[in-house]
Design goal:
Order of helices and strands: HEEEEEEEEEEEEEEEEEEEEEEEE
Keywords: Signal
Strand order of the largest sheet: 3-2-1-24
Distance between the termini: 33 Å
Organism: Kineosporia babensis
InterPro entries: FG-GAP, Integrin_alpha_N, TAT_signal
Pfam families: FG-GAP_3
Shape: globular
Helix content: under 10%
Structural class: mainly beta
Strand content: 25-35%
Number of strands: 24
Protein name: VCBS repeat-containing protein
Length: 335
């Protein structure tokens, strides 16, 4: 027996050519012309970027710390992470990082609290986490979990650092190492067949235990602020869960994408209303994140057939006519 003990509805646009549908774009916001305003905006953006990476509601894969999601894949054939920093003209490729093995699971997170995403992998064969802290470039490891667990990293104690966490379907228990105290937390929440969907659903700055149950389409959320649960039917078997902060209110929204009809189904927590958007086609994979840096989750898909990243930007309500290509056959998209 292994001991788990810590150490150390839309008008169809040109996107139809991509197999997509989209809403008509709204006018782009006016750009600031004042130097003083620009300086203030830059400071505000820096603060927003730091908050966004550490806020469980808007946690993103942001390896360069600019507050925007980066295009990132893991290539099992070479055991390497490949990252392109965001999507604009200033995008650049970061050096490839060798880590893990072919069958390991990517576990991105800010484990050192420096506001940048760290590269990490989990070994499903022995439960070992291996990660490289961006603040000092050191490779570290910890034994946490066992075969059959689902990884669920998040900031469960609200200290701005990602905690090591797994959900064990065999006993319905979450096992967490709180980075603030280096102590073990356990919580019975869930059952066999559930899918982990951690996020900050109550907006208190801490990751909540959350699950989606494909058998009945119900989300089961345990709010960390009150200890009370919120259950809601939203989805069906075959949907891909895609929780995120789509309305920018600081709380994770229930969201999923349905491959059978290419529709995203989101419940905005700010208004408790549903938002449906056609975006994608069968075979795509959800990679939701904040790719434009506006503090809201963008509807985003990775298309393995041509390795394109299809982003519907929340800031402009439009999409790129020339979606970026990042990855190769066999790559695993990370978000």
């Amino acid at each position: 027996m292994r001991i788990h003990r810590p150490f150390t509805r839309a008008t169809v646009l040109a996107g139809a050519a991509l197999g997509l549908s989209a809403l008509v774009a709204s006018p782009a916001p006016a750009l600031a012309s004042s130097a003083a305003h620009a300086s203030g905006a830059a400071l505000a953006q820096d603060a927003l970027s730091a908050k966004r990476l550490t806020n469980p509601a808007t946690a993103i894969v942001d390896r360069d710390g600019d507050g925007k999601s980066d295009l990132t894949t893991y290539r099992p054939s070479t055991r390497t992470w490949h990252t392109r920093t965001n999507i604009g003209n200033q995008a650049k490729a970061l050096p490839a990082v060798v880590i893990g093995q072919k069958d390991h699971v990517p576990v991105p997170g800010d484990y050192d609290g420096d506001k940048k995403t760290d590269v990490g992998m989990w070994n499903p064969n022995d439960g070992t986490w291996t990660y490289i802290t961006s603040s000092d470039g050191r490779t570290k490891s910890i034994d946490w979990g066992t075969t059959g667990d689902q990884v669920a990293p998040g900031d469960y104690d609200g200290d701005g650092r990602t905690d090591f966490a797994v959900f064990r379907p065999s006993d319905g228990t979450w096992y967490i190492i709180a980075s603030k105290t280096n102590s073990q937390l356990t919580k019975r929440w869930g059952t066999k067949g559930d899918q982990v969907a951690p996020g900050d659903y109550d907006g208190d700055g801490r990751t909540d235990h959350a699950l989606f149950r494909p058998s009945d389409g119900v989300w089961y959320v345990l709010n960390s602020s009150t200890g009370k649960n919120t259950n809601r039917q939203w989805g069906t078997k075959g949907d891909q869960v895609a929780p995120g902060d789509y309305d920018g209110d600081g709380r994770t929204d229930l969201a999923l994408w349905r491959p059978s009809d290419g529709v995203w189904y989101v419940i905005n927590s700010s208004t408790n209303t549903a938002q449906n958007r056609y975006w994608g086609t069968k075979g795509d994979q959800v990679v939701q994140g904040d790719y434009d840096g506006d503090g809201r989750t963008d509807h985003t898909l990775f298309r393995p057939s041509n390795n394109t990243w299809l982003v519907f930007y929340s800031s402009t309500e439009t999409y790129s006519q020339n979606p970026p290509v990042w990855g190769t056959t066999g790559d695993v998209p990370i978000h």
